[in-house]
Amino acid sequence: MSNREAKTYTEQTTWMLAVRDARDKTAFAALFDHYAPRIKGLLMRKGCGHGQADEIVQDVMLTIWRKAAMFDPERAQVSAWIYQIARNRHIDVIRKENRPIPEELGEAPDAEPDATQILGMEQESLHLREALSRLKPAQREMIEAAYLGEMSHRELSEKTGLPLGTIKSRIRLGLEKLRHELKGIRQE
């Protein structure tokens, strides 16, 4: 990159690139000082309390540090990239709050599952592993990364270099096959 190109970046983008390329803590502190209050204000305007907004901001900034290598100034402005992370975290919090508590979690904390429950869970795990092993390797890898590795479809696309549509198709087709494979087990 020439010096002329570097001058076209905003100060925030320059900080983000320093974090991405050199794990520059001073640049990260500047990003934090710039974006943390803005993200918190946005979250509070969307109905978050101070404590919850602070937690989300901390999580967002930690994600920025951890996933800095994924930032590409040619694909998005640093502010858009950061606010998208914040938006996703906020949605995750809202979904988590609105989720009904499963009945199993409503039991007393000291209640232990009986032997039949343990055996049933072990059998289900075995059937799932067997069904996963029968998938095409490309589908299995995508499903395992997305659901066990908790990677988003976009992260998988960036990691593998495959188009986002290919990632989604492999996951969809793999899940359909898994549903078919496991359908007989549920009916037993």
UniProtKB/TrEMBL annotation:
<keyword id="KW-0805">Transcription regulation</keyword>
<dbReference type="InterPro" id="IPR013325">
    <property type="entry name" value="RNA_pol_sigma_r2"/>
</dbReference>
<keyword id="KW-0731">Sigma factor</keyword>
<comment type="similarity">
    <text>Belongs to the sigma-70 factor family. ECF subfamily.</text>
</comment>
<dbReference type="InterPro" id="IPR000838">
    <property type="entry name" value="RNA_pol_sigma70_ECF_CS"/>
</dbReference>
<dbReference type="InterPro" id="IPR007627">
    <property type="entry name" value="RNA_pol_sigma70_r2"/>
</dbReference>
<dbReference type="InterPro" id="IPR013324">
    <property type="entry name" value="RNA_pol_sigma_r3/r4-like"/>
</dbReference>
<protein>
    <recommendedName>
        <fullName>RNA polymerase sigma factor</fullName>
    </recommendedName>
</protein>
<dbReference type="GO" id="GO:0003677">
    <property type="term" value="F:DNA binding"/>
</dbReference>
<keyword id="KW-0804">Transcription</keyword>
<dbReference type="GO" id="GO:0006352">
    <property type="term" value="P:DNA-templated transcription initiation"/>
</dbReference>
<dbReference type="Pfam" id="PF08281">
    <property type="entry name" value="Sigma70_r4_2"/>
</dbReference>
<feature type="domain" description="RNA polymerase sigma-70 region 2">
    <location>
        <begin position="31"/>
        <end position="99"/>
    </location>
</feature>
<dbReference type="InterPro" id="IPR039425">
    <property type="entry name" value="RNA_pol_sigma-70-like"/>
</dbReference>
<dbReference type="InterPro" id="IPR036388">
    <property type="entry name" value="WH-like_DNA-bd_sf"/>
</dbReference>
<dbReference type="GO" id="GO:0016987">
    <property type="term" value="F:sigma factor activity"/>
</dbReference>
<dbReference type="Pfam" id="PF04542">
    <property type="entry name" value="Sigma70_r2"/>
</dbReference>
<feature type="domain" description="RNA polymerase sigma factor 70 region 4 type 2">
    <location>
        <begin position="128"/>
        <end position="178"/>
    </location>
</feature>
<keyword id="KW-0238">DNA-binding</keyword>
<dbReference type="InterPro" id="IPR014284">
    <property type="entry name" value="RNA_pol_sigma-70_dom"/>
</dbReference>
<dbReference type="InterPro" id="IPR013249">
    <property type="entry name" value="RNA_pol_sigma70_r4_t2"/>
</dbReference>
